[in-house]
């Protein structure tokens, strides 16, 4: 309900969690550091290809497509007409002027935006929450951080259900959360926040007792536990991770040598 | 051989002025099944937490005495070491599961003990086998029902291969199917695996069936330890009685007091049935007193539901074609398993949900076009968990919140608060902080806070779930008082004893459809229909139904059976169903 992931049997979904973590992050990073629109377009094409291969359903993607379209239009207008870049104007309508630089900047910006959104969807849509934690853990994120993330994911639906129930309970007592001035409305949320806090504190007490009853001893220094499920790192995983790392390191070195490292926003060149 | 020994145990929570545990002494033998009963707040859960060292290691506070588990003193043994010996499950089935899938949940404990992966796999399979949940191993905990969550919690505790399993009220938040699932697992554990079990429970009938010994806690002390039969016999003599006893025991006790029961007190339905059979065979009580089935439904309906359909967004149909009428001044119980559509139905009464198809009329107006705030003037809705709504500094403020939202003047609000507190006998709590009150009182305050809005209809969602015997009695009493004030009461509940005690009509829902709508006595006389929805009538109703063919009436309460047997009990309430 709160996750994009649905278990599917295909090449992308069957990869090791480490590979499924490395692919989207390396694509994002490549998109950031590359200063060529054509490279960004290639990365975008790869992202789309991977999304197609992962066979995410159209119904899952639909709400995101609307967001993508909305953001693309807003950013395009901003970058196309209001960027302060130089270069020859391509066309002028009244006081609106579009320069060549602005056009390139807009195309690069939109491409990067799409890379960000699509790779995020690829990540969340192909990795289960358990795999996500496993992937991060194997990428040397400290277990305690992974554990906190796991608890947040586990209890998010519970918290959301509590919130909904509290809202309904207070509405049943005649509270109209949508009515009144902004200050009055803010005041009304006290009737939601206090029960939510009280419930959460009570829950935390049970959770901590439950954790201890199951021999959990959190430690920042040592990993004093075993893991029963370790996904195998197969040759295909090793090849893909190596390709991702080589591409990223190669691109980084190239950009550093060109003195172009750290180009942000829409400052790329063709 | 004693596996658990508690010697003169005292414990006081940090900041508390009183001791929660006061000189507990207890020995538990290997393979024994010990049940602990007692009212809410007497220290049962605190006692459980001392068994695996959470108290004193993880809590501050004052700790005196010794707890020894399998030869290890909990004062000097680390919790992870004790966790290998004592497995524990808690009442709150949601918060004790941390895994993202069932198998991860069960693996969590063994992983913490640094057990190798192949061994963990083996333990997961074994534990799931015991709780019969193998096919759910890849599911997320939040997709499971309450009973399934508790079963996973038991499996997770078993995966540590403990010598002692401690279960703190595992069934108090569950529906009848969930309760049945848990007791069936407990039966397997006791009979096939012989694990030492300590169970804190209110379900007297199940305890009578399985426990070797029962301990009664009062005010931080163990005041009685006996095998079930003498335990319940002695408990019945307590005045006032503080815990539930099997209804057959209660019946025998009442008959014995009037000199009409010469056998030992029965503790199971089978024992009670055998003796009643003997009484009836001797010809006693004939002709049996008959209780007429009175239909409380009147032509005027305060709520009328016509062909109601409801589907949650992206979900299957939760209600399919419900039609019913709720008469003014009636007490109606809506029953059925979790997921049968009970709460979905009553949420239409105050507009929290709007029909996908069909219509609903509340106090003469179409609910479809009214806001929740507008409908709250006619229909009050008290949610299951009072902590979902309590937020004010004093009980008075809490009770004033609703009527103030209706725009009433301060004088009227004050008058209503006073009247409701008096009606419910809670005037002494007026200035108390509602969150500092006990579980039962918080529930009553939540109920009062809806009552001050003076609605015509009061909907109570699971009013007695998680409550002990005394609080359940208080809530049942409160419902009767509210009804006597002329209110229409709709109770959504799993407690069949509450239904038998207060409801005049029963509406049974099953998979979103109306299965039965009949006066309580008539409905309880149809066990074959109720069993379709896995509803088990109270023990005493089942007992009276067994002798239906001999002309014995369907009795709703213990006193009625005594009366039908020809021995009226003086405290009998008027038969109003």
In a few lines, what is going on in this structure?
The complex is a heterodimer of chains A (270) and B (577). Chain A is mainly α.
Structure description:
The complex is a heterodimer of chains A (270) and B (577). By secondary structure, chain A is mainly alpha-helical. Chain A folds into two domains: 17-137 and 232-258, no CATH class; 142-224, no CATH class. Chain A contains nine helices and two strands. A two-stranded antiparallel sheet of chain A has the order 1-2. In chain A, a hairpin with a 2-residue loop joins strand 1 (89-93) and strand 2. The longest helix of chain A has 29 residues, at 143-171. The two termini of chain A are 42 Å apart. Chain B is α/β, with parallel strands linked by helices. Chain B has three domains: 2-234, P-loop containing nucleotide triphosphate hydrolases (Rossmann fold, 3-Layer(aba) Sandwich), CATH 3.40.50; 246-284 and 538-577, no CATH class; 301-537, P-loop containing nucleotide triphosphate hydrolases (Rossmann fold, 3-Layer(aba) Sandwich), CATH 3.40.50.300. Helices cover 37% and strands 21% of the residues of chain B. Chain B is built from 22 helices and 20 strands. A six-stranded mixed β-sheet of chain B has the order 6-7-8-3-9-10, with helices on both faces. Chain B has a six-stranded mixed β-sheet with strand order 16-17-18-13-19-20, sandwiched between helices. A four-stranded antiparallel β-sheet of chain B has the order 2-1-4-5, covered by helices on one side. In chain B, strand 14 (357-362) and strand 15 (365-366) form a beta hairpin. In chain B, helix 4 packs parallel to helix 6 (146-158). The longest helix of chain B has 18 residues, at 176-193. The model of chain B is unreliable at 571-577 (pLDDT under 50). The chains are: A mainly alpha (270), B alpha/beta (577). Chains A and B meet through helix 5, helix 6 and helix 8 of A and helix 3, strand 6, helix 4, helix 5 and helix 14 of B.
């Amino acid at each position: 309900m709160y996750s994009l992931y649905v278990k599917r049997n295909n090449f992308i979904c069957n990869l090791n969690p480490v590979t499924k973590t490395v692919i989207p992050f390396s694509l994002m990073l490549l998109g950031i550091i590359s200063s060529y629109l054509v490279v960004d377009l290639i990365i975008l094409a790869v992202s789309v290809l991977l999304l197609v291969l992962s066979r995410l359903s159209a119904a899952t993607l639909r709400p995101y497509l609307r967001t993508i379209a909305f953001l693309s239009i807003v950013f395009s207008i901003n970058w196309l007409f209001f960027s302060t870049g130089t270069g020859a104007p391509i066309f002028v309508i009244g006081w609106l002027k579009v320069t060549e630089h602005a056009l390139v900047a807009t195309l690069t910006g939109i491409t990067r935006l799409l890379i960000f959104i699509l790779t995020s969807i690829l990540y969340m849509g192909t990795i289960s929450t358990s795999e996500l934690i496993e992937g991060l853990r194997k990428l040397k994120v400290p277990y305690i951080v992974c554990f906190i993330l796991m608890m947040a994911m586990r209890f998010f639906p519970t918290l959301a259900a509590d919130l909904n129930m509290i809202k309904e309970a207070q509405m049943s007592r005649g509270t109209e959360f949508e009515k009144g001035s902004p200050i009055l409305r803010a005041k009304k949320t006290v009737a939601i926040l206090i029960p939510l806090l009280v419930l959460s504190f009570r829950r935390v007490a049970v959770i901590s007792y439950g954790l201890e009853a199951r021999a959990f001893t959190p430690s920042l220094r040592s990993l004093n536990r075993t893991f029963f499920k370790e996904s195998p790192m197969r040759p295909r995983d090793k090849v893909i991770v190596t390709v991702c790392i080589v591409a990223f390191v190669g691109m980084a070195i190239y950009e550093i040598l060109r003195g172009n490292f750290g180009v942000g926003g829409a400052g790329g060149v063709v | 051989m004693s596996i658990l020994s508690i010697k003169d145990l005292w414990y006081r929570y940090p900041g508390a002025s009183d001791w929660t545990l006061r000189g507990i002494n207890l020995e538990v033998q290997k393979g024994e099944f010990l049940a602990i009963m007692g009212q809410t707040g007497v220290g049962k859960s605190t006692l459980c937490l001392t068994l695996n060292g959470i108290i004193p290691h993880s809590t501050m506070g004052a700790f005196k005495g010794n707890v020894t588990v399998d030869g290890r003193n909990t004062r000097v043994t680390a919790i992870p070491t004790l966790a290998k010996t004592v497995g524990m499950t808690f009442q709150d089935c949601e918060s004790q599961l941390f895994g993202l899938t069932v198998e991860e949940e069960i693996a969590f404990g063994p992983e913490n003990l640094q057990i190798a992966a192949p061994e963990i796999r083996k333990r997961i399979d074994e534990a799931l086998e015991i709780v019969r949940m193998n096919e759910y191993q890849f599911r997320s905990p939040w997709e499971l029902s309450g009973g399934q969550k508790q079963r996973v919690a038991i499996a997770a505790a078993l995966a540590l291969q403990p010598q002692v399993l401690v279960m703190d009220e595992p069934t108090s938040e569950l529906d009848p199917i969930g309760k049945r699932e848990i007791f069936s697992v407990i039966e397997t554990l006791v009979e096939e695996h012989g694990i030492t079990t300590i169970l804190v429970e209110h379900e007297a009938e199940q305890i009578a069936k399985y426990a070797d010994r029962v301990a009664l806690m009062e005010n931080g002390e163990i005041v009685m330890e006996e095998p079930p039969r003498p335990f319940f016999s002695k408990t019945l003599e307590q005045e006032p009685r503080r815990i539930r006893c099997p209804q057959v025991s209660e019946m025998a006790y009442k008959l014995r007091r009037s000199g009409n029961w010469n056998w030992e007190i029965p503790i199971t339905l089978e024992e009670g049935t055998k003796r009643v059979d003997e009484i009836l065979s001797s010809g006693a009580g004939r002709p049996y007193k008959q209780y007429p089935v009175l239909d409380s439904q009147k032509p005027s309906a305060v709520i009328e539901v016509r062909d109601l359909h409801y589907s949650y967004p992206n979900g299957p149909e939760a209600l399919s074609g419900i039609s019913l009428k709720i008469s003014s001044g009636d007490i109606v119980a809506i029953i059925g398993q979790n997921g049968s559509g009970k709460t979905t139905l009553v949420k239409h009464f105050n507009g929290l949900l709007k029909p996908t198809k069909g219509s609903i009329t509340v106090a003469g107006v179409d609910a479809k076009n009214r806001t929740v705030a507008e409908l709250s003037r006619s229909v009050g809705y008290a949610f299951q968990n009072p902590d979902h709504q309590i937020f004010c500094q004093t009980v008075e403020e809490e009770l004033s919140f609703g009527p103030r939202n209706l725009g009433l003047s301060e004088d009227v609000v004050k008058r209503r608060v006073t009247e409701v507190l008096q009606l419910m006998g809670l005037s002494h709590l007026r200035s108390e902080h509602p969150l500092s009150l006990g579980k039962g009182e918080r529930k009553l305050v939540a109920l009062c806070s809806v009552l001050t809005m003076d609605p015509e209809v009061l909907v109570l969602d699971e009013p007695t779930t998680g409550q002990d015997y005394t609080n359940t009695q208080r809530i049942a009493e409160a419902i009767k008082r509210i009804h006597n004030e002329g209110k229409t009461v709709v109770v959504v509940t799993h407690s069949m004893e509450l239904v038998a005690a207060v409801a005049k009509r029963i509406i049974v829902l099953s998979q979103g459809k109306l299965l039965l709508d009949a006066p309580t006595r008539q409905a309880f006389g149809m066990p074959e229909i109720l069993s379709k929805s896995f509803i088990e009538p109270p023990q005493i109703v089942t007992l009276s139904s067994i002798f239906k063919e001999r002309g014995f009436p369907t009795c709703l309460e213990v006193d009625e059976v005594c009366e039908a047997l020809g021995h009226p009990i003086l405290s009998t309430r008027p038969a109003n169903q």
